[in-house]
């Protein structure tokens, strides 16, 4: 059963980081488009966050906690600093992603890139970029810590 949960953990991490990277690339490509088309890209980003990033982050944390509880029972309390780093960074990354980037992506779909809501669109887009970058960096650091632990 441990192999199944490791697979779920790795798959959800790929969904989370891969989705976040694809949303970032879409945001960068958005800058080359006419501003009136930015709403469509924002809708695509929100879909990526809703279908890949958010579920990936939640399943990754849940499977990580399950694996941690199983390991604590088997190791009788001997846990390395790399594992603790992976767990702490992963939890922090998930919080930033779920409480910062996900709401920003969702809000972006309700705003128009031109007209009255253009300023709010730009501010929300900057918030999504910032929280997405912070969450993604923390998730990559958690992945690095996990790779060094193994």
Fold blueprint:
Blueprint: H1 2-30, H2 38-75, H3 81-109, H4 118-149
Radius of gyration: 17 Å
Shape: elongated
- Count of DSSP helices? 4
Can you write the helix and strand succession as a string?
A: HHHH
State the total count of DSSP E strands: 0
The CATH class turns out to be Mainly Alpha
Q: How many domains comprise the coordinates?
A: 1
Helix vs. strand class: mainly alpha
Span of the ends, CA to CA: 19 Å
- What low-confidence regions span 5 or more consecutive residues with pLDDT below 50? none
How would you describe the oligomerization state of the chains in this entry? single chain
- Biggest β-sheet: count, sense, barrel? none
The third-level CATH topology is Four Helix Bundle (Hemerythrin (Met), subunit A)
Q: What portion of the residues fall into strands of 2 or more residues?
A: under 5%
Level of helix content? over 70%
Q: pLDDT average, as an integer?
A: 91
Named CATH architecture:
Up-down Bundle
